[in-house]
Design brief:
heterotrimer, A mainly alpha, B mainly alpha, C alpha+beta, A: mainly alpha, MetI-like fold, disordered N terminus, B: mainly alpha, 14 helices, about 75% helix
Chain lengths: ~300, ~300, ~550
């Protein structure tokens, strides 16, 4: 694979203008606030702040509209087909969004980083095997495979995590390998080797700390990818099983009523939109700080 | 250089071979096709007949070798769901529809993303840069199926400008292609922007400026020409994600391509068709990436051949 | 170096663009004629012109084909609107003789319909590669071609329902032997000749087009010159097709119908109920010595089954899931026009099955739930069955009701084929929905539901009901059958063998500016038939 040229311009460039946007970019208050409001606070305090139990059904108030659309303050964002409160479901859904992203990305990043380090450092057959695995995992339409498996074994939380790991690990491996390749030629690694450090020590004490920034930046940006992936899986009927209020499932479930009871899918959709958008803006900012070399696509 | 290409080619073949094993193994893990094929009240005799007919009673390695041998000759078996047609026939019949849609989606993303990325680079740090970023990111922040449904409601039902769904002329393609492309635009915009930033800093651009070449010429002619190589390398990835995206978009828009086909085949436990779709996707992906690698190696001989 | 690079990049980009443009232009424009009626439907489960390789449900080629026995468009009763102008059955129900309409003829000049065509079609449909539901009822026939227009099927044992097997939900389309002899199966794949009011024109993925047969043998001429099916899985997309005017009729989930109604569209229902929906406490293989029998399943206890029934508020279910357009079902398989209808079950329904959460809680306490059971969790299947988009929401609502009275539940998502596979493997230890569509003759329903050889989606078995069902199938005397079937229905009713939910008509939403009416009885698996009776508006 080709090694991308370095992109240092974003830091090297002298600050010429100081518009509002630049300020925000330096201190990413807006995305951070949004993220706290939409994802993190609800995820932690859902039990305390959600007005209702997300599974509780108010059968007399099925498909109640949101308060500003002729509804009442009882159900601020309206209710779904079975009279469950949308706001409460979104708040609890934040938990699943966060849990899936954290667990999936964590596992994917660890696996990818480990294999990437190994491939980049050992070269030879290890490298060939790992890189071919990377090729394969990119070439396989993972969503289709997941669909085929889920058709039989049924969807589950674990299956979603598995798909996330499968989709993510390869990009981590590729990026980490590229960096390791260049690091191992560097002086400090050579010096460590001369001093007589073992391979494990060199890998984990000298090389790993230098790729951690890249991994952190990538991991942050992947949160958006994972939230959307979960939605796609739910659309295909292989996401988090119902009646769990996962965001993707909420949007997928409400999509049929997108005109008459638009609020069922609209508000969870907005939760996804704001989360992913702010994650990406934050990730950009982090990248400029931590790892200007990384060209994220 | 030739050696590099040969190695890349062999590597792609190796990957493909492993993929055949994975595909074969997975499709046999995913339950027997008789579950979907036989009537509710099938007799044991009927079940046995079908199992024998499809060779499902033979050992796995025999089934795999038969599968591989036949696949090499372009025979992926008979479709179980589309009776009377070969699996490859069914897939190839629908492939053009997916390629048309994918082609248009790529075209749209290029036409939108490259100017957007260039402008963002030239006006780096301004509101324009930021808005370009946000517009591009919007597409990456919505579930595609939902975006698709909203597009249908706004442009087909509400405004009546375009048909809702189905297969037909260019008008039928616009909505699904836009839904598909938008997701890609963000990535391509960012790539173009960063490549342009790099090039705009280069010596020859500075030289051109000193010589008094008009700024628009510098940007759109000299700089872009050289920066465009970076997004080009992204086409392999782009094509891959478009194939995967087709699964969702084609279902929403009832666009009879391979993505929709794959879903139907999985629901119907149509092993041969599922295997063929996955392999065709893999071949297309590996093939495109090989071409991109070759182009890249040709254009920039400095890259590492590893 | 830059020149080289520029050149190549530019070319590559131009290439991509050119490819995309070429690809785009190579598309056919879809011909739209004013005289074509477009119907958006769920895709058939198997897309083929060889009907016998499907499950025998809705075949995409339906408008082009006919069966021996017709159905009256209003009552659904068997009549001579099919290919047989009359038929006779021997007193012992072992011999069926069909007399074919003398004028009946195939499309595309393949000649008149003869007994040989019927024998040929029967051979295809009962052959080894047939995957039809109900293929058993076609097999085992000895065929005698009496003359060109007369054919006799003789069986070793009585076949009381051979007329059902040859009517709407039956599985025997009459294909042309002449076409087969000349062109083989490829001929069927390319352009199958049937005898229906519409003839096959072309199909492409997701679409089939038919054209009206001018001077059809029956003398009836449909209003629309062309008929097109547009297959779409996404319900929202089907609704969009209808609202944008691209389709003139669509089968929509009930929850989407209101939206179409608000836009001035109208619902045309089948003349009769076309479907019964039930929740099955599956996996009760209680026959003596059955190794699959699990006596410690919670729902193996009749009190638990009664509690499940008592926990359900069927009125709200009808409103919330079926948009209020459904009847509460009393006994699955029982249907007033059919044999063995027991009005006392209807009368006792509130008393036996009525919504009573308090009684349900008492029953649970009596049964010692949950402590008395090793695994008290009740798995409820959420599945998507063709033509039943309501099942996932139904599963969620049932879960809510169950938990209200103290059941521990979990929802298991499974696709339809996997539910069947579990049943076929006799390991379906869960609660699953299933439908009887169309509503079958009582004895067919009983056999499907309670015999181990019946449908795998059902799993209530015990020696008594198996014996009763077999007895019904052996009995020929009308009065004795009536009494036996009634007894069987009463028995399973009292056993709380399942949770009857609703009985409902097939419904299609049409654009009244294009379609003025459509009379169809609701006797096929998706309910639709009699395509020739779709009336054009303003004519």
């Amino acid at each position: 694979m080709s090694t991308p040229a370095s992109d240092t311009t974003s830091l090297a460039d002298p600050i010429r203008r100081s518009g509002l946007w630049r300020q925000l970019k330096r201190y990413p208050l807006v995305p951070l606030t949004i993220l706290m409001l939409v994802l993190i606070i609800p995820a932690i305090f859902a039990d305390l702040i959600a007005p209702y139990d997300p599974y509780q059904s108010h059968l007399r108030n099925r498909l109640a509209p949101p308060v500003f659309w002729g509804g009442s303050w009882e159900f601020i964002l309206g209710t779904d087909r079975l009279g469950r409160d949308i706001l409460s479901r979104i708040m609890h859904g934040a938990r699943y969004a966060l849990a899936i992203s954290l667990v999936g990305i964590f596992l994917g990043a660890i696996l990818g980083t480990f294999l990437g380090l190994l491939a980049g450092y050992r070269c030879g057959w290890t490298d060939i095997i790992v890189m071919r695995l990377v090729d394969i995992s990119f070439a396989l339409p993972s969503v289709l495979l997941a669909l085929a498996l889920a058709a039989v074994y049924g969807p589950s939380f674990q299956a979603v995590i598995l798909v996330v790991v499968f989709v993510l690990w390869a990009s981590f491996a590729r990026q980490v390998r590229a960096e390791t390749l260049s690091l191992r030629e560097r002086d400090f690694v050579a010096r460590a080797r001369v001093v007589g450090c073992g391979h494990t020590r060199i890998l984990f004490r000298h090389i790993l700390p230098n790729v951690v920034n890249t991994v952190v930046v990538m991991a942050t940006l992947q949160i958006g990818v994972v939230v959307l992936l979960e939605a796609t899986l739910s659309f295909l009927g292989i996401g988090i099983p119902r009646p769990t209020p996962a965001w993707g499932l909420l949007v997928a479930d409400g999509r049929q009523l997108v005109v008459s009871a638009w609020w069922i899918s609209f508000f969870p959709g907005m939760a996804i939109l704001f989360t992913v958008l702010s994650i990406n803006l934050l990730g950009d900012w982090l990248r400029d700080r931590l790892d200007p070399k990384l060209r994220q696509v | 250089m030739r050696r590099f290409l040969v190695i890349r080619f062999l590597q792609a073949l190796l990957a493909l071979w492993v993929i055949t094993i994975i595909v074969f193994g997975l499709s046999h893990l995913t339950g027997s096709p008789i579950d979907a094929l036989l009537p509710d009240d099938a007799s044991p005799e009927q079940i046995d007949n079908l199992i024998r007919h499809w060779g499902l009673d033979r050992p796995y390695h025999v089934q795999y070798l038969t599968f591989l041998g036949n696949a090499l000759q372009g025979d992926f078996g008979e479709s179980l769901k589309w009776r009377g047609q070969s699996a490859l026939g069914v897939v190839l019949q629908r492939l053009p529809a997916t390629l048309q849609l994918g082609g248009l989606a790529i075209l749209i993303s290029v036409v939108v993303a490259i100017p957007l990325g260039v402008m963002a680079a030239v006006r780096k740090g301004t509101t324009l840069d930021a808005s370009a970023n946000v517009i591009a990111l919007l597409g990456q922040s919505l579930p595609t199926f939902w975006l698709g449904i909203i597009l249908i409601w706004v442009f087909a039902v509400g405004l009546g400008w375009l048909p809702t769904s189905g297969y037909g002329g260019i008008t039928y393609m616009i909505l699904p292609a836009v839904a598909m492309a938008w997701f890609q635009i963000a990535a391509l915009t960012r790539l173009t922007r960063s490549a342009m930033l790099e090039v705009l800093d280069a010596e020859y651009v500075k030289l051109a400026r000193l010589k008094g070449v008009p700024e628009w010429q510098i940007v759109w002619k000299h700089a872009l020409r050289n920066a465009a190589i970076v997004p080009l390398t992204y086409f392999g990835v782009l094509a891959g994600s478009i194939l995967t995206g087709s699964v969702v978009i084609e279902t929403v828009f009832a666009w009879p391509g391979t993505g929709w086909l794959a879903i139907e085949a999985i629901r119907g436990r149509d092993f041969p068709v599922v295997q063929t779709v996955v392999l065709v996707f893999a071949v297309v992906y590996l093939g495109l990436n090989f071409i991109v690698d070759a182009l890249y190696a040709y254009v920039d001989p400095r890259i590492r051949y590893d | 170096m830059p020149t080289n690079r520029n050149h190549l990049t530019r070319r590559a980009l131009a290439g991509v663009a050119a490819l995309a443009i070429i690809a785009t232009l190579g598309l056919p424009a879809v011909a739209q004629t004013a005289d074509r009626v477009v119907i958006a439907l769920d895709p058939p489960s198997t897309e083929t012109n060889r009907f016998w390789t499907t499950s025998g449900g809705f075949g995409g080629i339906d408008p082009a084909f006919e069966r021996l026995v017709g159905n009256d468009p209003v009552t659904g009763a068997y009549d001579n609107s099919g290919l047989a102008e009359r038929w006779e059955v021997s007193d012992d129900f072992t011999s069926w003789t069909f007399y074919i309409h003398p004028e009946a003829e195939f499309h595309f000049g393949w000649g008149p319909v003869t007994a040989a065509d019927v024998a040929h079609s029967h051979a295809l449909h009962s052959g080894p590669d047939s995957t039809l539901t109900g293929v058993q009822s076609l097999r085992g026939a000895e065929i005698e071609i009496i003359d060109d227009k007369t054919i006799r099927f003789t069986f070793e044992e009585p076949r009381i329902d051979f007329d059902f097997a040859n009517a709407g939900r039956g599985s025997l389309y009459i294909y042309s032997k002449a076409q087969y002899d000349a062109e083989g199966l490829e001929g069927y794949d390319r352009q199958p000749a049937g005898t229906g009011h519409y003839q096959y024109v072309e199909s492409s993925p997701g679409q089939i087009v038919f054209a009206r047969v001018e001077d059809h043998w029956s003398g009836f001429q449909p209003d629309f010159a062309e008929l097109e099916f547009r297959f779409t899985n996404e319900a929202a997309t089907k609704l969009a097709l209808l609202l944008s005017g691209e389709a003139h009729a669509a089968n929509l989930p009930r929850e989407l119908q209101d939206e179409a109604l608000a836009d001035g569209k109208v619902i045309i229902s089948s003349q009769n109920p076309g479907k019964q929906v039930v929740l099955i406490p599956n996996g009760l293989y209680q026959s003596e010595g059955d190794p699959a029998h699990k006596p410690d399943l919670p729902w193996a206890d009749i009190r638990i089954r009664e509690a499940m029934n008592r926990a359900l508020d069927r009125d709200t279910i009808v409103d919330a899931i079926f948009a209020g357009r459904a009847e509460k079902l009393v006994r699955y398989g029982m249907h007033e026009p059919h044999e063995g209808f027991a009005p006392e079950l209807v009368e006792r329904f509130e008393e036996m099955y009525g919504y009573d959460p308090e009684r349900a809680k008492e029953l649970l306490a009596e049964a010692g739930y949950p402590d008395a059971f090793p695994d008290p969790v009740i798995p409820i299947i959420s599945t998507v069955s063709p033509g039943s988009p309501e099942y996932p929401t139904l599963a969620e609502l049932v879960q809510i009701y169950f938990e209200e009275v103290g059941f521990q539940t979990e929802i298991r998502e499974m696709d339809w084929a996997s539910v069947g596979a579990a049943g076929r493997g006799r390991a379906a230890y869960f609660i699953n929905p299933v439908q009887n569509s169309p509503i079958r003759p009582s004895n067919v329903a009983l056999s499907n539901t309670f015999l181990p050889t019946g449908s795998p989606y059902h799993g209530y078995e015990d020696d008594r009901i198996i014996e009763l069902t077999n007895e019904v199938n052996r009995t020929l005397d009308t009065e004795a059958r009536e009494a036996l079937i009634r007894e069987a229905f009463s028995y399973v009713y009292e056993q709380y063998a399942d949770m009857p939910m609703v009985s409902l008509a097939a419904e299609i939403v049409v654009d009244p500016e294009v379609i003025a009416g459509w009379t169809y009885p609701g006797v096929t698996s998706n309910g639709f038939s009699h395509w020739q009776l779709i009336e054009a508006a303003g004519q």
